[in-house]
Fold this sequence. Notes:
Layout: H1 9-45, E1 52-53, E2 71-74, E3 80-87, E4 90-92, E5 95-99, E6 104-110, E7 115-118, E8 125-128, E9 132-138, E10 144-149, E11 162-168, H2 170-180
Parallel strand pairs: 3-6, 5-11
Antiparallel strand pairs: 1-9, 2-3, 3-4, 6-9, 7-8, 10-11
Amino acid sequence: MAGSEHTHPGADVAARAESRWAWIVGAIILFLVAMMAYMSLHWAAMPPTRTETIDPTTLHIAGEFVETNLGSSAEADGTVTVRVLANQYSFTPQCIVVPADTPLHFRGTAADVVHGFSVSNTNVNMMLVPGYVSNLRARLEKTGDHVMPCHEYCGTGHAAMWAHVKVVDKAEFARLVQASGSTGRRVSCVQ
């Protein structure tokens, strides 16, 4: 039977199965692309509602980020709020004291350009953008000293922009709070 072509009966089954899987994969890809497009348009039309704004030109005059409010302060509910302000080329305060194994609420902003910081050997990592207040909740389990470098290039002095975070036990932190005179005042590495 020269010239006649024989097709294997399984070839049709394989071709149909391949075609079916190609349609399924194509449908999944189309669904994911449609979902990404929808979410992109949704986020563009509806920005996050919990965004806090602040006027970076008046930070030093009044409000939450005046110098006397910066650093760690014990709250009535047992948490500790840490307020940080970034300026080219320093963080205020330069040394932050926090208690170990305590809920921490980091709040920060920048006065001039975009900054960021991470605390070494922890999961603390924040971006500080002028005009916005950044929030992060964390818990540092072990006592010790950590460095806190700026991780966003902010100008020629960027390499020298870093601070320290000192994690002390709860009793030591309570003593520092008492020494500061009030739970509302900041706790410093130098009392």
